[in-house]
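Let's sit down with a protein and look at its sequence and fold side by side. Once you have written the record down, we can walk along the chain together.
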Amino acid sequence: MNQSKRHHYLPRFYLKGFTNKDGDFFIYDKKKDEIRKSKPDNSFFEKYRNTGTVKEEKSDLPEQVLAEFDNRSANVLEKIRNSNFRQNILTPEILYEIRFFIASTFWRIPQTDNLREKIIDDFSFQELGFGIFNKKSGERMEEAEQTLKDIDLFRKMYSSLLPLVSFMGKYKTQNFNDWRIIHRTNSIHITGDNPLILRDKYENFSSIQQNIIMPLSSQKILACTNKAPDSFDPVFNLKMDIMILHQSDRFVCSSSEEYLKLLIDKPYKMTIGRNWEERILNEIFSYFD
């Protein structure tokens, strides 16, 4: 059976929100310091990233599971992108799905690979809220759990398992009123291989359910903050995009090559190596204080 090769750590349905009318966008490669035209199908992926091995057999089951999650998230994201500022689009059902998408994005991007591996090694199944139990006695089979953690295929499955932990037990948050969509009809936003702007460093699974900003498209922003600002000035857009440029590991993209060049040549390169990231981050969230 043929297995998939291109495994997108940013889903194609998400990336389509940053394309132009021709379905293209422009990608800046920070490592090569160059811009090229591309499409979602050809960007933000790694070959066999979600392929695992068990008993010397390869399987892309982790990619299949993520694809099922993406099918659900794609419909919700499309509804949000087609909404306007007069609609109360974040119903409890849509909010649940979009929060799950946030968690899924966090655990599948390359920047969290080391964190994910550390969690696999340091957290027991019981701490994460799932486990293997004896069918007759109901007792937890800790030895079997440890054996399973050592299997490559199962470790690859954690990209799809960890988002679920955010909605279990002590990590579940009920801050429904803190989530909002910001509509920016006269602006362009970029995204990158780390599109989640977190106010605080990751501490636990609740960290990705509060104080977070993420562009959902060139003109839609998702924010989870304690306060809704009265208004935004154009500088907010600029600071947000500079932050994404700084925190992305290698790739960022925009529907506008001109805007991307402007960001790179002026504000981004002027702030590299000057420890401005924390200052910019604080200024972004000051709009919500």
